[in-house]
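Exam review. A common question shows you a sequence with its structure tokens and asks you to describe the fold in words. Practice with the pair below. Do the first one on your own.
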Amino acid sequence: MLKKIARALLFPFIKYPLLRILTWGQILVNLSGITIKDKSNLYLSAFMDILWCISHPRTVQNPICRFACQVYARRLGVRFSIRANSDDVYSVLPYREGNVHSAILNPLSAGDIFVDVGANVGYYTILASKRVGKQGHVIAIEPFPETVEQLKLNIGVNCAYNIEVIESAVWSESNMKLVPKFTKGFWGQVRLEPNVEETNEKIHVPAKCIDDICKVYPFIKVLKIDIEATEYEALKGAKETLAKTQFVITECNQNREQIVCLLKEAGFQIQKLNFCTYILASKPAQF
């Protein structure tokens, strides 16, 4: 009994530092600094972040790059700019999301349209841009100004000129004002909620519905939605878009049954993916 208690008490002190070491190992294998300074900043960040995790073994947060740098993803042939004291390096870690990565990118080919709802700093946006080519088009939707600035920077360093950036949140209807809820240590996981109390002290984020954003496109090959538990609200405002979309990849942290029901009613077949609560909804090509 005492051994079990001791193991339970010691487990977090071993688990999280070990996971952090393994994660940084994956980062350093898959991402390399562009210049000597970038390389030094990346390795020094790994060392400092692992030390921080060892000294705070019960605090769970994403790996943090302590210094700004540019990295190159060798296997993908793309570059990303990393902000200092952010988890951008974790957001652009290649193949981190398992078969979600292939579910999003594999259906895309030259000339297709890809809609990235919750583009963050542009990992899938940039990769989809390469897939669809000059004849294709990518719509990257991201509400937060600092993240949008980083997204545009990453678009620039990759010369990805077939991307349209929409600086807006997504909700079931347009002309809404949403309030961000920040989670410490998870910069790419900011949740938006309706502003139920009018006050000038809150940060307000304007919102549009997906149907309004996508109404000019006759056919969308892939729609990806990752907006921190508000995916159902987004899908409620996308009924016209779903009718002309072949693949939907969405996270289902909340309202899973309602999301699945909505997608089935729109003619999609549902498949669970192996990363977190993501699902793949697909239907035969009709266009």
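Now try the second one, then compare your answer with the model answer below.
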Amino acid sequence: MDNYLKAQDFAEEWGVSVRQIQLLCKKGRISGAVKFGNTWAIPKGAKKPPDLRKLSMQIRIESK
């Protein structure tokens, strides 16, 4: 488990809530994340997935 960090660590690093990290893990958006009981283990160096809300907003603006 030396190569993994908790959701709390990534929440602080990425500037989002722990709940947001948990949801990203649950949806499979963070590669390599594994759930152990109630805790998500996320590989060190995992990349922050793009915010799909921002992408959908851009598409709506560009289509006008």
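Model answer, second protein: The first strand starts at residue 4 and ends at 6. The radius of gyration is 14 Å. Full marks require stating both points clearly.
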